[in-house]
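TASK: fixed-backbone design
INPUT:
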């Protein structure tokens, strides 16, 4: 028997033979859609071998990154390891970087040199930071997408506060100014958290909290674009009630970012804001792997996102399912955890149906409202866009909703349940 010429030859199977092979289902990306697809498949006792591939070792529960930054919640629940989450699930986890995806050959190539052919593919690649062509934004701003980002930010914030204790004049003012670019959910929730958290830290160092500035810069006329007027009003009120009020710069364009300086255009005038902390939360870009897919342009929207059928399949490749930030359905949905979670569950059910030769069903996504963190121990829960619960009780509802989604022992952890119950009963008793 001749020796194989290469590793590629041993692992690559021609597309025409795939139907006859017991090839795995590959899940690319371990975000909400990818991870919950895997967990639901395991719960359904899906018999097709399944592999989840992600470049990181840990799942990031992004809605609770603010609690990670502030220390309000146990970090083991916010960033659990994939191998722990999938232990005894029947799902194999591979930590590797995806190098290329060949939809025609049904093949995925990894940076390690491994190749995998698949029977079905799930794309859950998410998006990457986009800087809207602003010069210097990538080089001089901080991000807030991962636990690593949160760790870097926390260290940076403490360093600025510490240095400010020995600074004066413009240097001190710059160190104590914290600029956030973007007034979407991430920018607003982060601003509200910092406006409560920074005064606590600063006071411990003997600082005067009136020296602190938290500034949100937004190109548009309003914050939280796409949300209701009532939740915007609640949010704007809450931002003014923090330990230090959050300043909103609306209709202000960021045209350049320099070290410790944001160059702005407002009322047709060029201004400069001196800030040692500049955090970019606005704008995302399509994952480069999606850009490289060989598919018709008509199968992408104007932003380059993958168009999906109502079964969450690619238009030209029905064996490929997808969800999350890199996709768009006929009726666009917000890029939130609750949507991605439901997409993962629906994909898993349809993969199970395929394996049992049953009909597939259209996905039905239920939007349950908006949950926004508006400071330490303060949130708004806009339930089904009908009932708004604010303050401490809103905070408890938000925490309970996210704890229920956590793919970790937290959702079944006795102490967590008792804590939530005690907090709720204590709140009601006080009322």
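OUTPUT:
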């Amino acid at each position: 028997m001749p020796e194989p010429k290469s590793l590629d030859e041993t692992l690559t199977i021609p597309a025409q033979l795939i139907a006859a092979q017991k090839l795995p289902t590959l899940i690319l990306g371990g975000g909400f859609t990818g991870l919950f697809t895997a967990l639901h498949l395991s719960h359904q006792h899906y018999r097709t071998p399944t592999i989840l591939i992600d470049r990181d070792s840990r799942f990031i529960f992004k809605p609770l990154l603010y609690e990670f930054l502030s220390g309000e919640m146990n970090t083991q629940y916010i960033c659990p390891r994939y191998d722990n989450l999938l232990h005894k699930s029947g799902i194999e986890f591979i930590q590797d970087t995806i190098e290329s995806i060949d939809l025609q050959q049904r093949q995925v190539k990894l940076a390690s040199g491994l190749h995998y052919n698949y029977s079905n593919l799930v794309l859950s690649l998410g998006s990457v930071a986009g800087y809207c062509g602003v010069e210097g934004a990538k080089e001089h701003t901080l991000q807030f997408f991962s636990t690593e980002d949160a760790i870097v930010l926390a260290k940076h914030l403490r360093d600025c506060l510490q240095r400010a204790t020995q600074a004066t004049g413009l240097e001190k003012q710059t160190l104590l100014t914290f600029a956030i670019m973007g007034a979407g959910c991430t920018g607003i929730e982060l601003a509200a958290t910092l406006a409560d958290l920074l005064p606590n830290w600063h006071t411990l160092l003997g600082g005067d909290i009136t020296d602190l500035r938290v500034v949100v810069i937004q190109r548009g006329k309003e914050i939280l674009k796409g949300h209701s007027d009532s939740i915007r009003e609640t949010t704007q009120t809450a931002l003014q009630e923090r330990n230090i009020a959050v300043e909103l710069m609306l209709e202000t364009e960021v045209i350049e970012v320099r070290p410790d300086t944001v160059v702005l255009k407002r009322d047709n005038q060029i201004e400069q804001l001196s800030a040692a902390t500049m955090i970019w939360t606005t704008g995302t870009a399509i994952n480069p792997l999606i850009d490289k897919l060989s598919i018709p342009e008509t199968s992408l929207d104007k932003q380059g996102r993958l168009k999906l059928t109502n079964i969450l399949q690619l238009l030209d490749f029905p064996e490929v399912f997808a969800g999350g930030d890199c996709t768009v359905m006929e009726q666009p949905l917000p890029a939130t955890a609750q949507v991605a979670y439901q997409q993962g569950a629906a994909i898993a059910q349809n993969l199970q149906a395929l394996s049992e030769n049953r009909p597939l069903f259209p996905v039905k996504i239920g939007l349950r409202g908006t949950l926004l963190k508006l400071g330490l121990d303060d949130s708004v829960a806009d339930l089904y866009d009908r009932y708004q619960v604010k303050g401490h009780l809103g905070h408890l509802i938000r925490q309970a909703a996210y704890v229920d989604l956590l793919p970790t022992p937290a959702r079944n952890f006795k102490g967590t349940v008792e804590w939530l119950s005690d907090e709720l009963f204590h709140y009601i008793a006080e009322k």
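COMMENT: The CA atoms of residues 373 and 379 lie 4 Å apart.
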